[in-house]
Write a structure and sequence with these properties.
Layout lengths: L3 H14 L1 H44 L3 E22 L4 E15 L3 E15 L2 E17 L19 E6 L5 E8 L2 E3 L1 E4 L14 E5 L12 E13 L1 E4 L5 E8 L5 E4 L9 E2 L2 E9 L8 E3 L10 E4 L6 H9 L2 H19 L5 H22 L4 H24 L3 H22 L4 H19 L9
Parallel strand pairs: 1-11, 3-12
Antiparallel strand pairs: 1-2, 1-5, 2-16, 3-4, 4-10, 5-9, 6-7, 6-10, 8-9, 11-17, 12-15, 13-17, 14-15
Helix pairs in contact: 1-2, 2-3, 2-4, 2-5, 3-5, 4-5, 4-7, 5-6, 6-7, 7-8
């Protein structure tokens, strides 16, 4: 019968020589290393949030993104309701007519928008965002609103109390505004309208409006021209809503990495050149699913906006986050290489040495994030990758006592990091390339391990 000491010796010998024990140990260490990997992903998220906060601070101080909605005619009209009232003295009832002022809104017949944008990159510490100055010209004409479909009597319309309204997500950056309506100049003021202030997309819309257009007799004219000019300081993007029955828009700039988005895209093929862009839109009434007149409130048409995005095209935190998601794969495959070397060469590798190698692999991501904040992503990836590959290769030389194994490990890690870099650069083909790469890795492991006697402990 074996003594307790002999049993302990046998168990220790089994842990040291058993392939099963090594596999369990390696698997356990991989699970342990998921903890620092999760902290690294939290670090990347925290740095990304800090970047967003810095960019938001710049944008708020300079001027936020611009959404132009208008111009729109706001026309008041009278409504009448009858109310039955009881006279307390005579105990008789009589009908009282209550007059109330409501509004209907009319969009332009033709709308032409021209915006010349001068963007620049503005920094706050290590973070940067795109801001711009834009000279905007809006002109076109209104025709007499079709009130038949609105169930409004012509005699109830208060034409002398009509206003011209423009809504924008950014009034802080507006300056040098000039409005001409029917060959008359009007001042413009900012008006808070709680009913229309915030839409379902979370965009705050502010109202700019003229005083009463009492110099124009709408009942005597069929068409009235308007011309609006103003400058605006904004950031990241500029959009417009095609409220004209026919809307034509031109946005030009020297920004070379523009991204066009929204419900409608520019129609001209030569919109982007080496000197910037000159994008043109033409949107007809039949292209948009809304009408020309509305009662009660200005409708929320934000979903039909189109425009240009000036955001800085490189998002290193997103790439770092995608890279960190492959951390488990990097650690598992690296440990697999060491495990196969240990099994085939009969060299003993202590669990602590596996742990040190795993921690070195996790350091790649902290190096990547910190360096990419001060340099471009490719340079940061190269520095972090070379540092980790050299560190692990030199360390493995002292463990494996043979130069060919560290060289093989260095080549394997280099190929693995290159493979991951290619995947995170791809979008449409990332899954395809990743699947092919993993299949080739599996095939290599099956080939290398085919002669291992897994039952020989």
């Amino acid at each position: 019968m074996d003594t307790p000491q002999q049993n302990r010796n046998k168990f220790g010998h089994w842990l040291k020589t058993s392939i099963t024990a090594r596999m369990l140990m390696v698997g356990f260490l991989i699970v342990i290393l998921l903890v620092p990997l999760s902290y690294i992903e939290s670090l990347i998220f925290e740095r990304s949030m800090r970047e967003d906060a810095a960019i938001n601070e710049i944008n708020q101080q300079w001027g936020n993104e611009v959404l132009i909605y208008g111009p729109i005619l706001e026309i008041p009209y009278k409504t009448y309701t009858e109310k039955t009232v009881l006279d307390k003295e005579t105990q008789k009832t009589y009908t009282e007519t209550i007059e109330k002022i409501q509004y209907f809104y009319s969009f332009p017949e033709n709308l032409l928008i021209n915006s010349n944008i001068n963007p620049e990159e503005k920094k706050r510490g290590i973070y940067s965002t795109a801001v711009y100055n834009s000279a905007i010209k809006i002109n076109g004409n209104f025709i007499k609103p079709d009130i038949k479909n609105l169930d409004i009597e012509p005699k109830d319309i208060l034409w002398d109390k009509a206003k011209l309204v423009v809504q924008s997500s950014n009034v802080k950056g507006v300056y040098g505004a000039n409005i001409e309506f029917g060959n008359k100049n009007y001042a413009i003021t900012s008006e808070y309208n709680e009913a229309n202030n915030k839409n379902r997309y979370g965009i705050t819309l502010h109202t700019l409006e003229t005083k009463y257009l009492d110099q124009i007799d709408f009942s005597l004219v069929d068409s009235i021209a308007f011309n609006i000019e103003f400058n605006i300081k904004g950031s990241e993007q500029i959009r417009f809503i095609p409220v004209g029955k026919t809307t034509e828009a031109t946005i030009s700039s020297n920004w070379k990495t523009a991204n066009f988005f929204g419900e409608f895209l520019p129609y001209n093929d030569d919109k982007i050149t080496e000197n910037g862009f000159n994008a043109k839109w033409k949107i007809l009434e039949l292209n948009r699913p809304f009408s020309q007149e509305y009662k009660s409130n200005i409708p929320d048409l934000t979903e039909y906006a189109s425009g240009v995005n000036f955001m800085i095209p490189i998002d290193d935190y997103q790439k770092s986050e995608r890279s960190a998601k492959y951390g488990f794969l990097v650690i598992a495959l690296t440990f697999l290489v060491f495990f196969l070397i240990q099994t085939l060469s009969k060299i003993n590798i202590h669990p602590f040495q596996y742990l040190i190698i795993g921690l070195a692999l996790t350091m790649f991501y902290t190096l990547l994030v910190s360096i990419s904040e001060h340099s471009n992503f490719l340079k940061a990836y190269l520095i972090a990758g070379i540092s980790v590959v050299v560190l692990i290769s030199v360390y493995s030389k002292s463990i494996l006592k043979n130069i060919k194994f560290p060289l093989f490990i260095a080549l394997s890690l280099t190929a693995l990091y290159t493979f991951i870099y290619v995947i995170i650069q791809l979008e449409n083909y990332a899954l395809l390339v990743g699947s092919i790469g993993l299949f080739m890795i599996l095939a290599t492991v099956m080939f290398v391990s085919r002669k291992i006697d897994w039952n020989n402990n």
